[in-house]
Amino acid sequence: MKPIVSVIGRPNVGKSTFFNRVTRTKDALVDNFPGVTRDRIFGDAVWNGLAFTLVDTGGFADDDQDFFAGPIRAQITQAIADADAVILIMDGKSGVSPFDRDLMSLLRTAEKPVLYAVNKIDGEEQEERLYEFYSLGIEMPFPISAEHGYGVSDLLDELVAVIPPSRPETAEEMIRIAVVGRPNAGKSSLINRILGEDRHVVSDRPGTTRDAVDSICRVNGKPYRLIDTAGIRRKGKVTRKLEKFSIIKALRSLDRCDIALIVIDAADGITDQDISIAGYAQERGCGCILLLNKWDLIEKDKNTAKEYYERLRMAARFLSFAPAMTISALTGQRVSKIFSRVDEVYAQYTTRIGTGPINKILTEALERNEPPLHKGKRLKFYYATQVSIRPPTFVCFVNYPEAVHFSYERYLTNQIREGTGLTKTPIRLLLRQRTGRIEFGRKKRDKDRKKKRR
Prior knowledge:
The protein is an alpha/beta fold.
């Protein structure tokens, strides 16, 4: 296991910029106003051959400055408790703040190494700004510029000297699950319920989550990577740059996940934006599970769930294969059953079908429903083969692929789905033209030489 290093400080001192520099990523959102980071962001870093996990945190402030100050302080306290070492970053431009003193008091009770960095010192000529910070009782403040890199190497040299070495980890395959949906649908509440702790800041204000935040959980001894994301609003309603970046990160999380949990606020009903988000997941080939959250708020009779499912299936017909279930992140209703569905979908999502069985399914499908004519010639499907998983992708060779109507392509996809039992995963069917006999080796090289001579 890698040692954990938490980065703390008041708002807008450059913690996220420092995090991005050390991890060599852009995982933490950065903007020129305070309060951008709210949840803890984890990233892998290596310095002088020592690997460690760096944790970015929200800015330490009071309740008058920020509505989220209380939950963020709780996140900072947890980050300090979990860390093997702490880096307190202060602002060299604005000088010592009362919040710096509060953080110093908090850190005095922490029985772990603490390093003090004064940021926004862009060169040796600005190091005179350090003098003020000695009043905090610091023996050795490190002058750094997180933006330009000045002094960062000295700080990291000292850091790796005081943290314990990493212990070897056993590599385990982990199902990656992105939790996506509209703002305030209950995504962070769901992950907190699964983890059994307040891992993410939660409020009834839309847009609370800004970063795509990864968490690891174990269910029945099996590891899963959960990715909490910012709420995705309609493009026309998104005006602020920060929100645009948050949505871009949410959509990118779909590119790196296996399964998308699409959280829908059942109390608000099924909206067009819910279906759009489901479409984003489908376009990226994710396995999908539709979750009707806040089910505890719905007045129910014996047909209520059935009516919701029918409405959902009508609105998202392109996701007819995706399992759907009603849950309540607040009460925990049916939350534990999500992972059995995840395992079912993932098993199909990573399935390989042999060329023999898939061609038998294709032959029977063509006999049941003969392909149409194209310019007086019959469309001919020669053979099919599976070329990849995540999702299962099949290539079918045909004489005129551009002439295959989408309805016939959908028919073949459904036949493959039915014949293989892949009823809960997306399937891709690619049509390719067969150009004739394929030549390999010496004959082909001789022909290529002759062409070049001409």
